[in-house]
Amino acid sequence: MEDIKYDTEGVIFNIQRYSLHDGPGIRTIPFFKGCPLRCKWCSNPESQRLQPEIMFQDSNCVHCGKCAEVCHFGAISFDRPYIVDKDRCVGCGACAEVCPTAALVQKGKRVTVWQVIQELQKDESVYRRSGGGITLSGGEALSQPEFARELLKACKSKGWHTAIETTGLAPKQVIDDIFPFIDLALVDIKAINPHTHKDATGVDNRQILENVIRISYITKTIVRIPVIMGVNDDVQSIQAIANFTKLMHNVTEIHLLPYHNYGENKYALLGLIYPMKGLPNSMPTDTMEMLKAEVERLGIKCQIGG
Ligand code: SF4
Ligand code: SF4
After folding, report:
1. Ligand 1: nearest atom to the Cα of 70
2. Is 102 in the pocket of ligand 2 (CB under 6 A)?
3. CA of 275 to the centre of ligand 2 (A)
């Protein structure tokens, strides 16, 4: 294998250990920052922007003013309810470091491949015993292609199973460069209708659909459908995606991921409005069972949840 550039830097906002989801066995999941989509139901809004950013919990703030004193960018003002000006903030984290009450928390930090590998290494024996490994998640890991590729190369050099949770949106060259280092691709398909897709995610789906076919020819692929009320929670939408998977190479399994509103509170902490506000908190079980039966009727193995 070509040399691994361990000093390649990227931005992540979490490393979750002992996950039983997102691939076989027990897994460790680095969450990348940055995503080209803006799905209305996104449960990780802190993942969307590439740069580190600040979450502000109003109820914890004692108005001591320490944060404003250390901010060199004039990004903090107490004249507004959400004290951080996102256009000025560069995510340096200085304010969060001095805040005595953790009202300000930095989300995302710049790290090297070497630093992430040191963290992943802690559970090496767990991967071996459970048949698990590493799953890149986010955000969209393909938004940081150099970092993702070097990290995956480093994982493969240690013999770890690698997976990625992906929207599939990236230039073709990125797909060709990265997927040879991935054992399992969990690709999201939200909608086949381009208007529905654009309205729900903010982006066109043509490149995504081309890419997911391409990915399926490079590595083992499972299609995941986040089932969202008013977007794709009907038989025709799910049938269209299930039929599309027949164009892919050897995709035998679809996972239906029911909508939930677990991420709603994070929008306020980021000074954002939750786009799904006012809708029910989760998908009804009978709708999920009905859609699962529909996928199975088309001859494709299906499960609810990932
Ligand atoms: S993260 Fe840095 S730039 Fe942003 S508000 Fe805090 S101190 Fe200012
Ligand atoms: S440092 Fe923390 S507690 Fe003090 S004003 Fe800033 S956010 Fe509020």
Report:
1. 7
2. no
3. 28
**Ligand that comes closest to the CA of residue 90:** 1
Ligand nearest to C-alpha 98: 2
Q: Is the CB of 76 under 6 A from ligand 1?
A: yes
Ligand nearest, relative to CA of residue 101: 2
Is there an atom of ligand 1 within 6 Å of 73 CB?
Answer: yes
User: 93-146 pLDDT, tens per residue?
Assistant: 999 999 999 999 999 999 999 999 999 999 999 999 999 999 999 999 999 999
Mean pLDDT of the chain: 97
- Per-residue pLDDT reduced to its tens digit, 14-29: 999 999 999 999 999 9
Confidence of residue 2 (pLDDT cuts 50, 70, 90): confident
Provide the residue type at 171 as one letter.
P
Mention every residue, 6+ apart, whose C-beta is less than 8 A from residue 93: 52, 54, 106, 109
- Integer angstrom CA distances of residue 145 from 28, 85, 109, 148: 19, 29, 17, 5
Residues 71-85 pLDDT 10s: 999 999 999 999 999
- Which residue carries 């799953």 as its tokens? 135
* 3-class SS string, 209-273: HHHHHHHHHHCEEEEEEEECCCCCCCHHHHHHHHHHHCCCCCCCEEEEEECECCCHHHHHHCCCC
Contact (CB, 8 A) for 251 and 216: yes
pLDDT in tens, 188-222: 999 999 999 999 999 999 999 999 999 999 999 99
Q: In 10 A of CB 289, how many CB atoms?
A: 12
Nearest ligand 2 atom to the CA of 60 is 3
Q: Is 55 in the pocket of ligand 1 (CB under 6 A)?
A: no
